[in-house]
Amino acid sequence: MENLHDKRKVYDKSQLIESEIKQNPIEQFRDWFLQASESPMISEVNAMAVSTVEEDGCPRTRMVLLKAYTHEGFIFYTNYNSRKGKAIENNHKACLHFFWPNLERQIIIKANLEKVAENLSDGYFHSRPKGSQLGAVVSPQSQEIPNREFLEEKLKDLEKEYENTEVPRPDHWGGYLARPYEIEFWQGRPNRLHDRIIYQLEDLDWKISRLAP
């Protein structure tokens, strides 16, 4: 067994105090997201973990890319027939997680998910590179397939079919809007006395509290 007892670091880059935070968590997210975007050490600032609960009651987590955020919430796109899509259909709650280790920050978002309007899914789908559009059509996401060649052959056929024409968005592919009802901002601090500020939606207002680390 490898001993990992000494695998630790000192967190001392910043602080998170009540007098400096925004009263709305989306505005606070925007500030942190823009700061992370400016860091040369973060290659995919919009990468986030999405956890859903499957039929056996076990959470399942995967990395996806945040594609937009508004005052309503956070938007990402996927195959509605995938494992995550089926889990969301059965349980509309999910947890989003951003981790930016170079800034010693993480954000945990509990949200209710709903499909975005079809015109939004259409617009984003057709903004993607054609190869990505074809990939969305080719892949029966999360289903068992015989081998890699199965996908590559399907891709070749579709490349010929849509060589000189627009790729239609599949009905089973589109976006989700995650409407948050709880957002926690975590800032690493020395001696493991980390800052944890949590926003909880109560009626139409956000309650702000500090949690012990």
H and E string: HEEEEHEEHHHEEE
Structural class: alpha+beta
What is the total tally of β strands?
9
Low-confidence parts:
none
User: Would you tell me the overall average pLDDT?
Assistant: 96
Strand content: 25-35%
The N- to C-terminal Cα distance equals 29 Å
Helical residue percent band: 25-40%
Would you identify the CATH architecture of the domain at 25-121 and 175-210? Roll
So, the CATH homologous superfamily of the domain at 25-121 and 175-210? Electron Transport, Fmn-binding Protein, Chain A
Largest sheet: 9 strands, antiparallel
CATH topology of the domain at 25-121 and 175-210: Pnp Oxidase, Chain A
Function: Catalyzes the oxidation of either pyridoxine 5'-phosphate (PNP) or pyridoxamine 5'-phosphate (PMP) into pyridoxal 5'-phosphate (PLP).
EC number: 1.4.3.5
Protein name: Pyridoxine/pyridoxamine 5'-phosphate oxidase
Catalytic activity: pyridoxamine 5'-phosphate + O2 + H2O = pyridoxal 5'-phosphate + H2O2 + NH4(+); pyridoxine 5'-phosphate + O2 = pyridoxal 5'-phosphate + H2O2
